[in-house]
Automatic annotation (TrEMBL):
Entry protein name: Adenosylmethionine-8-amino-7-oxononanoate aminotransferase
Cofactor(s) needed for function: pyridoxal 5'-phosphate
Record organism: Neptunomonas phycophila
Enzyme Commission number(s): 2.6.1.62
The organism's taxonomic lineage, starting at the top: Bacteria, Pseudomonadati, Pseudomonadota, Gammaproteobacteria, Oceanospirillales
Annotated TM spans: none
GO terms of molecular function: adenosylmethionine-8-amino-7-oxononanoate transaminase activity; pyridoxal phosphate binding
Length: 440
């Protein structure tokens, strides 16, 4: 068995990776390069060849406190010396109890019951099962369908895939296998734009027609992530909440990406002043140290589910309530809540807005938009991901474009100088790339 060498990755290991290891959304025929990382600290990744990259992705929204945070490291060491894992069936432990206490206290008052899962996709699966099992226990088993909005993304497992955009959601080839649900037109009115009631009419019409068969509306509040990094009006979310109440649907808010301050509010639902019936959380919950997620719901829903024929909620992952993950999550949320996180996110938003604005004048750029600690440059045409990725790495920044989007959501601990280097470097690369694209 080969030994692990901390500060280098050999050419043979890279070849093995390319030949045998599947990376997210990649082909095993002529796979794209995977840049070898040997360490990470603060907001920087160190590659095997010694180059340092400023991380603009927070490892897909999760590393909000940066890498190797001393207090998160200490929490991990302390817990692993006590108990790394124990099954949650019939047992409990302090890290899980205190994590659930924090989640109940930091979310809206009606959300009192917590189900711990081991990934965001599973949290969505749990939410869907909760909604369907609720109506079954309530004597309305016909309410077994879901409704959502186009351009949404909720994960890669089968229940989650079924409520991703059926055309643009990366799962079109599974259409004949997935359960069929209802899809309303996407919201078109931007976050700060004046409201027009036309924007809600598609959702309203589908709910009015099919509400007898719909268990829940599931959506990403305010920010549609992998479906296009689109920021929509809080008024849409308010109207959606009203429609659910009016026609007897549960509202599931998928805040796996947006939760814990990313949009400038603690939760994206706070922009609209609404509370979902079921809330999905993940990604940043452990500061990117461990995979962990949570699904919260109300006492009324939990009690209805528990009074049904099954007498319990029918789900239970092997690593549910993992003590190591829960312990790190407790420290991560403590760090967040004890900081002036709101002012910090505003600082990042101001700098993103200012530094990305020049990209609006670049030929081939369709839009530039920022919200909280999220910055997006949308191009008019899909990018050549492999080409632009190399240019970004050569610039000393780590950004992972997809489709027409070149976007960033940096760790919250990023300092102004590093954020300048990230954003100004990003604009430079986009301009160079588009200039070359025009030439080619």
């Amino acid at each position: 068995m080969s030994s692990f060498v901390k500060d280098t990755i050999t050419d043979e290991q890279i070849r093995y990776d390319q030949e045998h290891i599947w990376h997210p959304y990649s082909s095993m025929i002529n796979p794209p390069p995977a840049y070898p990382v040997v360490s990470a600290k603060g907001v920087r990744l160190t590659l095997s060849d010694g180059r340092e990259l400023i991380d603009g992705m927070a490892s897909w929204w999760s590393v909000i406190h940066g890498y190797q945070h001393p207090e998160l490291n200490a929490a991990a060491h302390e817990q692993i010396d006590t108990m790394a894992h124990v099954m949650f069936g019939g047992l409990t432990h302090e890290p899980a109890i205190e994590l659930c206490r924090t989640l109940v206290e930091m979310t809206a008052e009606p959300l009192q019951k917590v189900f711990l899962a081991d990934s965001g996709s599973v949290a969505v699966e749990v939410a869907i099962k909760m909604a369907i099992q609720y109506w079954h226990a309530a004597g309305k088993p016909q309410k077994s369908k879901l409704i959502t909005i186009r351009n949404g993304y909720h994960g890669d497992t089968f229940g989650a895939m079924a409520v991703c955009d059926p055309v643009n959601g990366m799962h079109e080839i599974f259409t004949q296998t997935l359960p069929q649900h209802y899809f309303a037109d996407r919201p078109e009115i931007g976050f700060s734009e004046p409201w027009n009631n036309q924007d809600i009419l598609s959702l309203q019409a589908l709910i009015e027609t099919h509400h007898d068969h719909i268990a829940a509306l599931i959506l990403e509040p305010i920010v549609q992530g992998a479906g296009g990094m689109r920021f929509y009006s809080p008024e849409y979310l308010k109207r959606a909440r009203t429609l659910c109440d009016q026609y007897g649907l549960l509202l599931i808010a998928d805040e796996i990406a947006t939760g814990f301050g990313r949009t400038g509010e603690l939760f994206a639902c706070d922009h609209a002043g609404i509370t979902p019936d079921i809330l999905c959380l993940g990604k940043a919950i452990t500061g990117g140290y461990m995979t962990l997620a949570a699904t919260l719901t109300t006492s009324a829903i939990a009690e209805m589910i528990s009074s049904g024929g099954a007498g319990c909620f029918m789900h239970g992952p092997t690593f549910m309530g993992n003590p190591l993950a829960c312990s790190i999550a407790n420290k991560s949320l403590e760090l967040l809540l004890n900081s002036d996180w709101k002012s910090n996110i505003k600082r990042i938003e101001t700098q993103l807005t200012q530094n990305l604005a020049p990209a609006k004048s670049i030929k081939g750029v369709a839009d530039v938009r920022c919200l909280g600690a999220i910055g997006v440059i949308e191009l008019t045409e899909p990018v050549n991901a492999q080409r632009i990725q190399k240019m970004l790495v050569d610039e000393g920044i780590w950004v992972r474009p997809f489709g027409k989007l070149v976007y960033i959501m940096p760790p919250y601990v990023i300092d102004n100088d590093s954020l300048d280097a990230l954003t100004l470097g990003l604009v430079r690369v986009v301009k160079q790339y588009l200039d070359q694209y025009e030439t080619d």
